[in-house]
Design brief:
The chain is mainly alpha-helical and 131 residues long. It has helices spanning 31-56, 64-70, 74-94, 99-124. The termini are far apart. 8% of the residues are buried.
């Protein structure tokens, strides 16, 4: 899965021979995949920011596990969310040539996009003068 070339100096972009399986590990991941990963992490940070904004204006966290993390403070919450999604995206990036990983990346992107639409909907109904 990882080699000494995974981060610097790798050349393996895909299969070497026609008979090789397309689902293999590579050393070079590509700019599009990098942008996808950065986009997912950015959407994750926006989700965290909106969550803190809504909590500051009287909202409540319905996920009890996330609420326990929030009880440690906003910095811990953002760190937890960022490291958590960062590790997941890193794993999906490393396994990008496997069908399940590609489905996972697209699912996470679509899920966060829908979640951000929900946040924008809630924001349009938020009374910013309260609190």
């Amino acid at each position: 899965m990882l080699s000494r070339y995974s981060f610097i100096g790798g050349r393996r972009r895909g299969k070497r021979r026609g008979e090789d399986d397309a689902a293999m590990f590579v050393d070079v991941y590509g700019g599009r995949l990098f942008m996808l990963a950065v986009t997912i992490i950015g959407l994750n940070l926006l989700d965290a920011w909106f969550t803190l904004l809504f909590l500051a204006h009287g909202g409540r966290e319905v996920n009890p596990f996330v609420q326990q993390v929030l009880d440690f403070g906003p910095f811990t919450f953002i760190l937890f969310k960022t490291v958590g999604i960062g590790l997941c995206v890193a794993f999906l990036t490393i396994t990008k040539n496997f069908r399940a990983a590609r489905i996972g990346l697209i699912t996470v992107l679509v899920g966060y996009s829908i979640l951000l639409c929900w946040h924008f909907f809630l924001l349009s109904h938020l009374d910013m003068t309260a609190s």
